[in-house]
Amino acid sequence: MIWVIICCLLSAMPSVALAAPGGADSSASEPQNSVTVSGEIISGEEQAAATQSPDYYDSAPEMDQSQVTSESAMLIEADSGTVLFEKSSNERIYPASTTKLMTALLTAENCQLTDMVTLTNEMLAAIGQLSENSSLMHLDRLEEGTEISVKDLLYGLFLRSGNDAAQVLAIHIAGTEDEFVNRMNARARELGMADTHFVNSHGVYTPDEGENHYSTAADMAKLAIAAAEVPVLSEIMGTETYQYESVSGLEENETLGNDVIENSNYLVHTPADHPEYASYIDDRATGMKTGLLLNIQPPEAEDLITSYGCLVASASDGNMDLIALVFGDMSLADDENGVPAAYARWDIARQLFDYGFGNFAKVDIAQYVTAFSTHRQIGDETIEAAADLSGVQPNERLLLLTDAQGLETGTTVLEQQVTMNEPIDSSVHTGDEIGRVAYLLDGWELYSAPLIAAGMLQTVPAADPAEEVGDGETGGLFVFQLWYLWIIVPAGVFLTLLIIRIVNLGRRRRRRGLYAARRRTLADIRPGARKNIPPDIIPTVVPKNIRPVKPIKRKINHDNEKE
């Protein structure tokens, strides 16, 4: 009985989500490609706005910019390129030795680590023009005709920041350094580095053309992402020490051994002769490139710039990879207290990493995609459809840490948004894709799945427009939720018990009425029951349900009468 009532209640529910007014084919009344958002159908223009990624990250906590003392800085998530922090990121900067990221990228794209490079007279001549105070891997100590591996040159390029290594690789790949620089600028354009121009392969600032070798933090971020995607380069950039394999006599190191070089990135490695730099170590750091210009005076500078530090640094917490970019760190060295030139860049990078890892997280959205089903009325029939989640694949997105934690604990739930293909008619078959279901967070679409027809649910009479549920704008929209059963089932049980109670009370009243009538009838026919009727006279009229009793004439002793 209970389930009969429940079924009756369910059948009385307004039918099917996304039904058009009047219950007819919706293609005549709904906008093309309409979208259901929280129970509403919106137009195509509103749909485009609803599915665009909003300024989601604007709600993240702000970083204290007073900690960022460099002229320009930026923090990005490496996989997506999402900007998490920026300071003057589009202002022109001088990239210094971070230029070598482009040199290394072109080398990786054109050479193998095992390739051998033969030192030519042209290469040695170019090296001779470099200042002795510039960073070198000392290739000038080798003779013409010496062969050195691309692997050794790349390690010298990154760890030793060898300007001579950059020149040798440039000439080896392009024939001349000028031609290689043309390729550098062409590759920059391919990466979208619109505000970048290179004039050499190493980033040395020269008085005659140093001002023409420039970039921006935003452009260098694009280059850093491209370089980080090359496994060989990532491995080299994160190496603390390396010993040359194909040549010898380049490096004299009594502490570590001859021909052993150390990484100049103090976030990754502390130099053996400067243990005081250990305070800059960051266990999350994974590599990238440093840069430092000393005593330069660009045209826009009023005074000589004693120290101009640059840093492109990467870090990972095992779940998310970040890249911090710092340019124009003019903090001065203090040799007596063991403070290197442009020391602030290391602290700035660590602060940027603290901010990124403390406020953002990578999340696999696929694990929070839940099942979805809906109904659609097509003329006199109702079709059932459900989201096809059979092809759900890992889909990582960068979220605010609070949202990532909310999804994990269940306090945050992805919103479901339905897009229906139009028109939909009775020709739809089971298995046809009739739309898509999008899963959104704060209006941002993070995942979508096809909406597949599962078959005709039932046949219903066409609805009267005057009786259509809804206000006319939502098209009689009703989406049944499972929690409704918590109301329907108790209500059904209560109504059932109430009906049983009413029926039982009615039966009792009828029994009592019949019993009372029988008592009155017996009293009427009992001899002597009424004083005004002689005891020897019996009524001749009795109720229909009482069988008449044949009169008996005898003397009755009323004093001993018992009922």
TrEMBL record:
Q: Which UniProt keywords apply?
A: Carboxypeptidase, Cell shape, Cell wall biogenesis/degradation, Hydrolase, Membrane, Peptidoglycan synthesis, Protease, Signal, Transmembrane, Transmembrane helix
Q: Where is this region: Disordered?
A: 41-71
Q: What is the residue range of the signal peptide feature?
A: 1-19
Q: Any idea where the Peptidase S11 D-alanyl-D-alanine carboxypeptidase A N-terminal domain is? A: 64-329
Its transmembrane ranges are 483-503
One GO MF term on file is: carboxypeptidase activity
- Tell me which family the UniProt entry assigns to this protein: Belongs to the peptidase S11 family.
Protein name in UniProt: D-alanyl-D-alanine carboxypeptidase
What is the species listed in this Swiss-Prot or TrEMBL entry? Answer: Christensenella tenuis
